Amino acid sequence: MTTTSPLHLAVALDGAGWHPAAWREPDARPEALFTAGYWAGLVQEAERGLLDFVTIEDALGLQSSRFDGPDERTDQVRGRLDAVLIAARVAPTTHHIGLVPTATVTHTEPFHVSKAIATLDYASKGRAGWRVQVSGRSHEARHFGRREIPRFSLDDLGSPAMVELIANLFDEATEYVEVVRRLWDSWEDDAEVRDAATGRFIDRDKLHYIDFAGKWLTVRGPSIVPRPPQGQPVVTALAHSAVPYRFAARSSDVAFVTPFDTGQAADIAGEVGPGPLVFGDVVVFLGDTAKEAVTRKDRLDALAGTPYTSDAYVFTGTPGQLADLLQQWQVAGLAGFRLRPATLPHDLTAITRGLVPELQRRGAFRHGYEASTLRGLLGLPRPANRYALGGA
Amino acid sequence: MPKQIHLAAHFPGVNNTTVWSDPESGSQIEFDSFVRLAQTAERAKFDFFFLAEGLRLREQNGLIYDLDVVGRPDTFTVLAALAAVTERLGLTGTINSTFNEPYEVARQFASLDHLSAGRAGWNVVTSWDAFTGENFRRGGFLRQEDRYERAERFLRTAWELFDSWQGDEIVADQASGAFLRRPGAGAFAHRDSHFDIAGQFNVPRSPQGRPVILQAGDSDAGREFAAATADAIFSRHSTLQAGQDFYADVKGRLARYGRAPDQLLVLPAATFVLGDTDAAAQERADVVRHQQVSGRTALRFLEQVWNRDLSGYDPEGPLPDVDPLVGENTVVRGRASVRMFGDPLQTARQWRELAETKKLSIRDLVIQVSGRQTFIGSPATVAAAIDELVQRDASDGFILVPHLVPGGLDEFADTVVPLLQERGVFRTEYDGVTLRDHLGLAHPV
Ligand SMILES: Cc1cc2nc3c(=O)[nH]c(=O)nc-3n(C[C@H](O)[C@H](O)[C@H](O)COP(=O)(O)O)c2cc1C
């Protein structure tokens, strides 16, 4: 089935790709993972494919095959650079694509994250976003030593203690995003007046204390950074169940969700929308033929020692088959997709040079960048400043 | 061979050094301004680019201070973006040790060092006040007396994290399937009176091992902290006598920590005004001073010492005859400079005497005592003065603060730098790659 309404397309960049054996592919560059050139090359490729944005994965702890701590494995990529800094480093080397780094809220300060993302928006001239990440991992809490998070494994997911912890972490995240958003608005757009006649650099009446006092956070403000070019950079969040859906619905501009079929895509889009744009996350193993894609996955699985599983739907097939799936799910209610390349650069270039031309042929994807900001690409208006309107 | 001079470029921020009202002044926020200044510094073969930081907007009399530049971008983000548009220039920034956590800051600096191929530097500052704390989870939790203790523990903890990867862990052997040589990379456990943390650090060892450490405190505790930990000290003593005293003082403290004098560079902040002749430069300097210090700015400056609202006074008239209010300064908030005036009564007395002797108005007095112009003269005069201060051990070089962005360094790069090069006291090409290389510092093992 086909549709002509354009869809939005992002890729999620992580290490050598999402498959744990991705770094062993012949075209992988595992020795370059910690260089600027590696990241700039990937994002420039995504930009050649006219994608809306890239996300950059991150966490405050070492990668692990376990939820509750490092796994002592030596056969997978371990170690990563700070995603906000990667995005900043890449910003001057790209011109159109949105840059959406991950930053954890659980142990960090909203004041710092707010100014970092605002500054990324300046350095990229309006292309910044942020993927909000909550951490419920005890070993990450130990890196800060400021609070205890009890140790859970994923099997405890439904336990009352973990349900309560998750609810609290997302309540805190809701406050956190609200603080960050208020800080972005704490300067009105025209606050810098440079009025030589009166000697005033700013009109201080256009700067606002946010005076946020919640259950988790109290922050006075205003920000030290003037309102960023987009007014509000694009806030995104990955959500898998009811509590995070509610968080994403209230706090995000783009929600990444993980349906496994068209029916789920429709249900989740209904639950999370209509506030944020709802994007489906899909892990992709692409090949010139379906068989080739399956063979690739099998080969990687054999290297890893186990079949690859994911929180998101795992697609194997050709770019054309992927285009079919995306268009079906789009009709079910998704605004776009965040594709997770199983290996880099292979699956990224299969997206930019295979999937994108196919979608263009179908009239379902842009032929050129039509806006200069990430909000513009996503069709999101530049928000008015809440304080300029006299609100809080 | 004469002593080699180190030079750095400070992007001028929220102090009244910056003349924002000049038609040549560009944005203090737009990234292009940072690019231009950094690229000029690199063209001139400077050691590094420097960013200051303040974590709350300054206030006076309960209102956000509006006479100087207000607002600045995030340190880490600007430096990482500048790494894309420069190749050799060191990228140093100010990051506070009170309102941050070691794990997070160590990750950011290690990442910056990777992303810049070894050019990161960290100016560790210790602002602790409750006023700034209102922007953070913990509020104002630290006593002033404890700020350097926390800074020292913070830095040592960060060092343990930087050292938690030794540098040989990543083998990335596609054939054998060994990404890491052994498990446990980045393992750390640290406990002291400020930090109790453990786990595995998730950034591999960076090109410099550890970023270069700068320190900018001036108190006895600050100097001791620098002697114990820093690679360079950013001071405010840029005249011959004060510079030599400071230089001898901090270098003299090093032996106690088993360190040699060349392991801590002394780099005072310095401004400059150039002209075709010394007289022309002097004239220009006078214009700049008056741009920097308006009547209103002068009164606000005086309030830093008087700790009172002085808005009723005439800036072209005599100094206030009332005495400063002693105690916590409640009029001026968020300015490091307030702490410069340890004894306000004595400062006021001295300034009054100076004003009476020289018949100075408030504005003239402030222009005189807040002297922000280190080097004034023709390029030849300025090059000679810089060289002399360095050869006579008043400093190891300077962190230059132009009064204009983004073009304020151009003239210096074009006229003074070649003269220093002719004298054989400043590099004509970078001979190393990392910031440590530029500063002549050993790479930590
Ligand atoms: C040249 C110079 C530059 C400084 N820059 C900053 C800065 O950017 N941000 C900051 O918070 N403090 C800055 N400071 C303040 C000091 O780092 C220190 O926190 C303050 O002077 C109090 O410490 P002290 O009592 O040891 O001087 C600077 C100080 C000097 C001398």
UniProtKB/TrEMBL annotation, chain A:
Molecular function GO terms recorded: monooxygenase activity; oxidoreductase activity, acting on paired donors, with incorporation or reduction of molecular oxygen
Residues the entry annotates as binding FMN: D58, T102, S241
Domain (Luciferase-like) ranges: 34-267
SUPFAM superfamilies registered for this protein in UniProt: Bacterial luciferase-like (SSF51679)
Keywords of the record: Flavoprotein, FMN, Monooxygenase, Oxidoreductase
Keyword Membrane: no
Pfam families: Bac_luciferase (PF00296)
Domain of life from the UniProt record: Bacteria
InterPro entries tied to this protein: Diverse_substr_monoxygenases (IPR051260), Luciferase-like_dom (IPR011251), Luciferase-like_sf (IPR036661), NTA_MOA (IPR016215)
Claim: Ribosomal protein is one of the keywords in the record: no
Ranges in coiled-coil conformation: none
Database matches in PANTHER family: ALKANESULFONATE MONOOXYGENASE-RELATED, C2H2 FINGER DOMAIN TRANSCRIPTION FACTOR (EUROFUNG)-RELATED
UniProt record similarity statement: Belongs to the NtaA/SnaA/DszA monooxygenase family.
Name of the protein this chain belongs to: FMNH2-utilizing oxygenase
Organism encoding this protein: Phytohabitans rumicis
TrEMBL record, chain B:
GO MF, any single term: monooxygenase activity
UniProt similarity note: Belongs to the NtaA/SnaA/DszA monooxygenase family.
InterPro entries named in the record: Diverse_substr_monoxygenases, Luciferase-like_dom, Luciferase-like_sf, NTA_MOA
Keyword tags: Flavoprotein, FMN, Monooxygenase, Oxidoreductase
Cited Gene3D superfamilies: Luciferase-like domain
Binding-site residues, FMN: T94, Y148, S219
The organism of origin for this protein: Phytohabitans rumicis
Protein's name in the database: Nitrilotriacetate monooxygenase component A
PANTHER family assigned to the protein according to its UniProt record, in alphabetical order: ALKANESULFONATE MONOOXYGENASE-RELATED, C2H2 FINGER DOMAIN TRANSCRIPTION FACTOR (EUROFUNG)-RELATED
Residues in Luciferase-like domain copies: 24-391
SUPFAM superfamilies named among the record's database cross-references: Bacterial luciferase-like
